[in-house]
Amino acid sequence: MTVLLRAGDFIEKGHRMTLISPSPYQYYSGMGPGMLSGMFRPQEARFHIRKMVEDRGGVFVAARVVHIDGPKRLLWLSNDAHIPFDVASFNTGSHVPVAWTGGSVERLVPVKPVFNLYLARLELQNLLRRGPLHLVVVGGGAAGVEVAGNLWKLVRDAGAEARITLVAGRGLLRDAPPKVRGLALSSLLRRSLNVIERVHLDSFAGRKVLLSDGSALDCDLAFVAVGVTPSRLFVNSKLPTGHRGELWVDRTLRSPDYPHLLGGGDCIAVEGMRLAKVGVYAVRQNPILHHNLMASLEGKSFRHFGAGPSPMLILNMGDGTGILWKKGFTVAGKMALKLKNFIDFRFMRKFQVSGELEESEALPDHSAIEREPGAGT
Ligand SMILES: Cc1cc2nc3c(=O)[nH]c(=O)nc-3n(C[C@H](O)[C@H](O)[C@H](O)COP(=O)(O)OP(=O)(O)OC[C@H]3O[C@@H](n4cnc5c(N)ncnc54)[C@H](O)[C@@H]3O)c2cc1C
């Protein structure tokens, strides 16, 4: 986002900037669960990245990169075009793998791309009018907990009924301190959500979800939040990668073998660091990427990325409260959610420079691309 916001810095110096993305919009995941429940309108949770880059003199190409030719500095796109470049930054993120479940596309909602959560809201508003539903959330991490809590709000606000079950796999919020786990569990149980721990999803069979303990659940719609994986783009392009297929970069966020390839966010593995796939690190890499892209083009010195302090995490529980934790400190309640909203809106204001809030809610035409699980990744 910083590189796009400051595209003018590159263009003033006579460089050309091209943004390649399948969608003209980028949604902010931190507000995704709130978009599901109706706390936020889609316009509040997205950046019009096409307008952002074009307003600054750059070029937008609606496509996916499907192959990178590192030595020849060529990008092959999903629309069969190819684009030569001097330096490229990869910020292609990650997706939720769903093919292994065997579930049909109509019954599955991978929680990434985040726009899926808005599409699911529209679908549920329709389905809930017809009668009570069985909704399943697969994955007991932060995304699964937030989605389950916000589904509850969606159902309640619709004046409808649904049985919501969270299948938590190894356990609810396994990486969080016990106090946070306890607060999240009691928040969900208080609202009669069904939480199943130490049980995994095995597969789908029609309208049933089959679980690892041999039991089965009825399921009208399942949200899959089992963690993310980067695309095979870098592996398939025969570039040096991390163990999960991320683009391998040094502390300057450049590929050591191909220093004209840079990257940030979920799609990179940084030498000597094990970073969680959270947006906080993508955001902290923003200014380094901006600086080092410019340094590559202008022959200046490079800056190094440092992971910084352990991030503060705040869960939006969907009932007007949040659960905040940072290192040993935990607090839950309305103030925690207020703080999350304050931080999120401040972040949005910084990059919503393209009239996003004045746009209509009408679905952008990329909805079909986004709904397809793992599309193009
Ligand atoms: C429900 C949910 C809630 C979350 N909440 C938080 C939170 O509160 N705080 C936090 O720190 N983290 C949160 N995360 C994690 C966070 O979403 C990610 O860490 C963050 O989005 C990573 O940013 P990114 O820019 O690397 O990638 P992404 O946000 O995944 O963006 C990748 C972009 O690249 C595009 N793209 C993909 N492949 C290609 C291609 N081949 N060619 C061209 N374009 C491509 C995609 O369309 C997308 O626009 C949450 C995740 C989920 C699922």
How are the SSEs ordered, and which strands pair?
Layout: H1 2-5, H2 7-12, E1 18-21, E2 25-27, H3 32-37, E3 46-48, H4 49-55, E4 59-62, E5 65-69, E6 74-77, E7 82-84, E8 88-90, E9 108-110, H5 115-130, E10 133-138, H6 142-157, E11 162-167, H7 178-190, E12 194-196, E13 201-205, E14 208-211, E15 216-218, E16 221-224, H8 233-236, E17 247-249, E18 261-263, E19 268-270, H9 279-298, E20 313-316, E21 322-326, E22 329-333, H10 334-351, H11 367-371
Parallel strand pairs: 1-4, 8-18, 9-16, 10-11, 10-16, 11-12, 17-19
Antiparallel strand pairs: 2-3, 5-6, 6-7, 13-14, 14-15, 20-21, 21-22
Describe the structure.
- The protein is an alpha/beta fold and 377 residues long.
- Helix content is 31%, strand content 23%.
- The protein has a domain of 175 residues: FAD/NAD(P)-binding domain, CATH 3.50.50.
- The chain has eleven helices and 22 strands.
- A five-stranded parallel beta sheet has the order 9-16-10-11-12. Strands 5-6-7 form a three-stranded antiparallel beta sheet.
- Strand 5 and strand 6 form a beta hairpin.
- It is globular, with a radius of gyration of 21 Å.
- The protein starts with a helix and ends in a 6-residue tail after the last helix.
- The C terminus is likely disordered.
- Bound molecules: flavin-adenine dinucleotide (FAD).
- The site of flavin-adenine dinucleotide has 30 residues, from strand 1, helix 3 and helix 9.
